[in-house]
Amino acid sequence: MKFKAPVNKNEEYEVDIIDLTYQGLGVAKIKDYPLFIEDTLPGEKAKIKVIKVNQNFGFGKLEELLKKSSDRVEDVNRDYTRTGIAPLQHLKYDAQLKFKQHQLQELFDKSKMDVEVLPTMGMDNPTQYRNKAQIPVRLINGKLQTGFYRKHSHDLVPIEDFYIQDPEIDKAIVVVRDILRKYHIEPYNENKHNGVIRNIMVRRGHYSHQMMIGLITRTKKLPMVDMIVKEIKDALPEVTSIMQNINLSDGNGLLGKSTVRLYGKTYIEDELLGLKFAISLNSFYQVNPEQTEKLYSTAIDKAELDGTQTVIDAYCGIGTISLAVAEHAKQVYGVEIVKEAIEDAKINAQKNHINNAKFVTGSAEEQMEKWQAQGLKPDVIMVDPPRKGLAASFIESATKVAPNKIVYVSCNPSTLVRDARRLAEKGYVINQPVQPVDQFPQTVHVESVTVFEKK
Ligand code: SAH
Fold this sequence. Notes:
InterPro entries: MeTrfase_TrmA_AS, MeTrfase_TrmA_CS, NA-bd_OB-fold, SAM-dependent_MTases_sf, TRAM_dom, U5_MeTrfase_fam. By secondary structure, this protein is of the alpha+beta class. The chain is 26% helix and 30% strand.
């Protein structure tokens, strides 16, 4: 017999919020049937309207708060919730940090692993931290607009103050928007797959204040390009690089294959832990510089290096961790799948006069196998994979080369815990508490450092 949900669409209920999901939605239960409700917090009472009924769970919309949580931040800008820019902005920052610690702890507990998770390292000023923006450009009521999509949609909400971005980046986006308006550049239309300008990307060095403007276009030709470049340069003196990326596809991917330099260098420079880094348009670079320094310092401390060790940095990006580790190690090997990032990594090694770091382009799983075959014997492997975590084959070959330690920087608690179980099967265990570091205040993302040691 088909289960019948105890609620109906459009009905109103008074509910108690008992939990907060990983996505930051409040949870209420009606006869054991869970409802997820945006902008509600544990301990609150709310009048809600059911807006979607699925087989095993539904969604509600907050109509009225009947009892407020003491962790609630009042008078937030709804656009930041609506667009998902800051899904936790209504939760006080201390409570956000606890929420992140708790999330990791719960996942380890559920998987029956006896692991302690420390309080999350937070920021003093947890807003305006992002050093990179990639903002969609669309036509709304006949006008070129920049902003962010409403959640689960491609409706653009025009926004000028992005709240969690470096305010200089916010200003630059408005300047570029106005220049594009002035020259009547046609915004991209996803449905018709026509128009010219798809996105504006901005990177700004936290210490260097060098700025890169990336114009992502559907067409090879950007009309009036010379005038546009001149006006951007004149209006934004921090700009040291203007790049055009051509994305011909009709898909959702941000960047296309070809990138053209329009002005200045092909990268900007910035510093982390006293080291200089070149960062290209399509290289990964941590978006929260202040917290990244804490994250890397934690990871490097936990590696306990004394200058005699060989270290592998898998998923190394532009070599940030590798180069920060190099002064504490005998030899460092970095691997990364994006070719441009490895080119940056090599430039970065030179810039910092570091001679004991070698970088290769490739997938971590294949390269690890090669290193294993070549008989490389690392003492420590540092990994910082994307959200999907480590490939099973990577774990296979990484544990075969038998490092004393694997230091795992994770941006996704669920794949971390999955990989922790796989590593345990290979004899790598967690002896010290896991350290979460808040790289993304106001959002639900959880970053952490975990050390695995050979039994
Ligand atoms: N440690 C770096 C980068 C971390 S982000 C830093 O902190 O800046 C993860 C990186 O892994 C990205 O640069 C991404 O391009 C890379 N990557 C993704 N899949 C990969 C794979 N299968 N093998 C190697 N690198 C990969």
